[in-house]
Amino acid sequence: DCRALEVVPLKGAMTNEVYQVRWLTGGGEEKGEGEYRKVLMRVYGEGVEVFFDREDEVRTFECMSRHGHGPRLLGRFPTGRVEEFIHARTLSAVDLRDPEIAAIIASKLREFHHLDMPGPKRVLMWDRLRNWLKTAKSVCPSDEAKEFRLDNLEKEINALESEFSGEDQCIGFCHNDLQYGNIMIDEETKALTIIDYEYASFNPIAFDISNHFCEMAADYHSEEPHILDYTKYPDLDERKRFVQTYLSSSGEEPDAEKIKDLMNNIEKYTLASHLVWGLWGIISVGSFA
Hints:
This protein is an alpha+beta fold. Helix content is about 40%, strand content about 20%. The protein has eight helices and ten strands.
């Protein structure tokens, strides 16, 4: 009975509209008893195709669902889908700095990076940056484009790609948007689930970790969610602890040189992370304002 459905909007989603849909089961409907069954309904945001290919995102979600990662896919409709409702808590900005939770994230991220996903296993980020730059130029007023120095960014993107191409890098399946709102934790079991794969692709793992570190400066539930506080960026000891946990989660203890190399690459890729989300912000304002 569709009239018995309760639909509750959920906050925190930036690209889509997300709702909890629940209804009573177990024969206690008339008395208001019984248990609630819940699903999550995701309605795709309009115009987000400028950022990613929706069909690629759906294929990724279906593959993750089949392999037991993330919520199960329960159904699709033209403008969205229905997913399993995960009975877990979405992390907060403060959680990312908790040493115990950070260690769980590091181990889970290593597992995520080693997923054998379909499709070409080549680095996507440089093509994405160039495509986003082209879009940003098309939606940005000329005076703002000059202020943002968009005409110079292609040189910077080329310089970064050239700088990093010679590195001995590890390529893996990256989430590319590992902010706290895309991580859920079961309080009892401490099992962690990474959700929302709109931007997921193969990339250098150092980029994914660097982006996660940058996200520690953000609080999207504050009065000024667009202001990043880099005093919250993890210090050297926190970064080293995260990298050591990440590398050792495979069962082998990494040597000091391996830890140092990955940490250095992570710091370099913060530059690319800033470019990615800077262009994302310009396109978002220009396309959806």
